């Protein structure tokens, strides 16, 4: 029983006892009945027991309340674009900021979406698209066509549909939004295999994947052995035993059954023991060891954890959950254990982790202790800092990196318009003293007797910046357990840099996204100027693995990326080319690419696809991303679409074959 329930019972029982005593006294004085003192006492005790049982039952808890422990065996689920249908609609409305809601803005967003798919994918003009929306000819769905048109009446509803709407299970406005979204998805995305029907798609399609965010989450960073204790809480394990005991005492008293009264007294004793006992505060020593201190992406490492009770008292009920990094899945074994520990005793557990690129810090371990009666529990966070640093694979890609220049696409060294030494003919000029003999035009000298020098197109190494979109909006994936786009971009950045450096180019690294110091008003933006050499390769890999902007875990909030972009533009030289890695998950990514291109930089977008197609909201987000790709390509910025199941080698090889391949 809770304290509030017990207090209520304690306040009611004296009142009832007083009323019963008064009624019994009046009955005896008026001669209505005879009652001895012993009988009166027994009757009052029995009545009080039954009333207390009734009060306790009416205030009892519905269920036992054990502390839920996190699920460390699963990585934190990534966000899926279009988790809410209204958010997907809002992507088409450039004036809508933040989350979408079922208001007039949703209708405006749907109108913009219809215009976008008709003008991009059907070749219609803005005027033709507006006319199609008004006359309803843009779709065959009568509900969708009438929903956006002011000239078409909605189709008549059946009696069953009107009854359903009246009962509040649905309404025409929400149904119109769903049907219109499905019609747009069919145009912008084509034939969708297994697409949901309009009648069973909710307005808000939330992810249902299990989350690891639980009581373990804490803002505190604990040192080794440091303990942060949470308040004790009752579990309700003995819920009902007090009620049963009081009923037994009440019935046994009236029926004069001593055995039943004795059983009730024993139950009351158990309830009192559970109320008076409390869980211990443990003193633990945690030691964690890793089988590999420098793993590569995809490697499986073994984790061994030893938990020792260094206190002087035994721990009779101990639940331990290790602080597995939220972005690493447990591939074998389990990271939790339940046991009892005597003073000085040690218990061990082992499990395996599949490592990904980045710096992965273990959270404080969660320790839950309960008393012997299991009626209360106490949770503690125990510090055991451990860090895994996994650098990306720095291996060249089999296909060339699709860079673009002012008028042509190329990879490797940049051929300039100025003359000098090289391999491609540029012009012939007059001979100058000390010109190399191998550059003299001897054929011309044989014909005319004049000396002339041949000029070739001068070659120099290309300056390339690999820029990763690491904003909060970029931490998206096609499924809750899939690798998010920032992680894919980080791995691809290392492969792209290795390819360009092997070709003799100079390569730099940058990122756009929030950092911990940036939230405090400080600057901590990743910037590695274009360079080459073995030391630069090492710095490049270390930055991708350790810089906070490439964190495997999504930041808690979005940062101010515009100021970061301005700082980046001031650092870039005019001839620097940019490979922008972004999932194109929102309109800001489109603005980012266009602003870089408007400053004269040759921008190539490599876009890992994070979209799904299970729900209408996800399909609509997929269409919005396709519109952004179309707009970038139409403005002269090439987009390399990186599918969900393809490797970066396959993507670049297919792109080279599509464009024409080779160096132009």
Give the secondary structure arrangement, pairings included.
Layout: H1 3-29, H2 37-58, H3 85-90, H4 104-121, H5 126-135, H6 142-148, H7 159-166, H8 172-189, E1 227-229, E2 233-234, H9 241-255, H10 258-276, E3 284-290, E4 300-309, E5 315-321, E6 330-333, E7 336-341, E8 346-354, E9 358-361, E10 365-370, E11 376-382, E12 387-390, E13 403-404, E14 409-410, E15 414-430, H11 442-448, E16 452-460, E17 463-469, H12 485-502, E18 506-512, E19 527-531, H13 534-546, H14 561-571, E20 577-581, H15 587-598, E21 603-608, H16 616-634, E22 639-642, H17 648-659
Parallel strand pairs: 17-18, 17-20, 20-21, 21-22
Antiparallel strand pairs: 1-11, 2-11, 3-4, 4-8, 5-7, 5-10, 6-8, 9-12, 10-11, 13-14, 15-16, 18-19
Helix pairs in contact: 1-2, 2-9, 4-5, 4-8, 4-16, 6-8, 8-16, 9-10, 12-13, 15-16
How would you sum up this structure, described in words?
- It is flat, with a radius of gyration of 36 Å.
- The chain starts with a helix and ends in a 5-residue tail after the last helix.
- Helices cover 36% and strands 20% of the residues.
- The strands form 6 sheets. Strands 1, 2, 5, 7, 10 and 11 form a 6-stranded antiparallel β-sheet that branches.
- Helix 6 crosses helix 8.
- The protein has 664 residues and is α+β, with helices and mostly antiparallel strands.
- Strand 17, helix 12 and strand 18 form a beta-alpha-beta unit.
């Amino acid at each position: 029983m809770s304290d509030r329930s017990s207090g209520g019972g304690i306040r009611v029982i004296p009142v009832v006892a007083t009323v019963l005593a008064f009624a019994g006294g009046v009955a005896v004085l008026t001669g209505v009945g005879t009652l001895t003192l012993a009988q009166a006492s027994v009757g009052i005790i029995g009545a009080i027991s039954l009333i207390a049982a009734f009060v306790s039952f009416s205030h009892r808890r519905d269920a036992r309340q054990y502390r839920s422990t996190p699920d460390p065996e699963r990585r934190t689920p990534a966000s899926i674009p279009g988790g809410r249908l209204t958010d997907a609609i809002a992507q088409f409305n450039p004036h809508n900021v933040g989350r979408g809601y079922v208001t007039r803005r949703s209708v405006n967003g749907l109108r913009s979406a219809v215009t976008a798919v008709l003008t991009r994918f059907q070749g219609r003009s803005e005027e033709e698209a507006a006319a199609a929306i008004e006359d309803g000819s843009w779709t065959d769905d009568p509900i969708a066509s009438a929903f956006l048109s002011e000239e078409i009446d909605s189709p008549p509803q059946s009696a069953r549909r009107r009854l359903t709407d009246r009962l509040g299970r649905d309404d025409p406005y929400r149904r119109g939004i769903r049907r219109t979204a499905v019609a747009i998805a069919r145009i912008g995305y084509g034939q969708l295999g297994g697409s949901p029907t309009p009648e069973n798609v909710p307005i808000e399609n939330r992810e249902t994947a299990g989350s690891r965010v639980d009581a373990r989450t804490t803002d505190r960073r604990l040192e080794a052995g440091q303990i942060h204790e949470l308040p004790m809480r009752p579990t309700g394990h003995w819920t009902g035993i007090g009620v049963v005991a009081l009923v037994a005492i009440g019935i046994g008293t009236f029926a004069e059954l001593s055995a039943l009264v004795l059983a009730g007294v024993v139950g009351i004793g158990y309830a009192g023991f559970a109320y008076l006992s409390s869980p211990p505060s443990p003193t633990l020593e945690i030691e964690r060891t890793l089988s590999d201190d420098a793993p590569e992406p995809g490697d499986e490492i073994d984790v061994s954890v030893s938990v020792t009770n260094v206190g002087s008292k035994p721990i009779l009920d101990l639940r331990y959950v290790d602080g597995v990094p939220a972005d690493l899945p447990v591939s074998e074994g389990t990271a939790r254990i339940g046991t009892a520990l005597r003073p000085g005793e040690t218990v061990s557990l082992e499990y395996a982790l599949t490592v990904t690129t980045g710096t992965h810090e273990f959270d404080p371990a969660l320790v839950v202790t309960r008393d012997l009666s299991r009626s209360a529990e106490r949770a503690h966070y125990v510090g055991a800092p451990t860090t895994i640093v996994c650098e990306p694979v720095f291996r060249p890609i089999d296909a060339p990196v699709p860079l673009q220049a002012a008028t042509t696409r190329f990879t490797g060294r940049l051929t300039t318009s100025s003359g000098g030494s090289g391999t491609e003919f540029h012009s012939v000029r007059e001979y100058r003293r000390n010109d190399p003999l191998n550059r003299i035009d001897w054929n011309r000298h044989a014909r005319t007797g004049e000396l002339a020098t041949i000029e070739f197109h001068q070659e120099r190494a290309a300056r390339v910046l690999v820029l990763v979109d690491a904003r909060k909006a970029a931490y998206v994936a096609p499924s809750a357990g899939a690798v998010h786009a920032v992680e894919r971009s980080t791995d691809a950045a290392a492969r792209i840099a290795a390819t360009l450096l092997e070709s003799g180019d100079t390569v730099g690294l940058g990122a756009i996204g929030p950092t911990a110091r940036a939230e405090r008003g400080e600057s901590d933006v990743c910037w590695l100027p274009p360079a080459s050499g073995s030391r630069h390769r090492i710095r490049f890999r270390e930055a991708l693995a350790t810089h906070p902007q490439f964190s495997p875990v999504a930041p808690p909030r979005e940062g101010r990326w515009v100021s970061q972009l301005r700082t980046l533009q001031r650092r870039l030289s005019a001839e620097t080319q940019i490979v922008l890695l972004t999932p194109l998950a929102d309109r800001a990514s489109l603005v980012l690419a266009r602003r870089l291109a408007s400053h004269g930089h040759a921008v190539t977008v490599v876009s890992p696809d994070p979209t799904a197609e299970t729900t209408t909201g996800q399909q609509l987000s997929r269409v919005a991303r396709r519109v952004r790709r179309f707009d970038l390509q139409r403005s002269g910025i090439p987009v390399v679409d990186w599918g969900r199941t393809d490797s970066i080698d396959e993507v670049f090889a297919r792109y080279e074959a599509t464009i024409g391949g080779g160096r132009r």
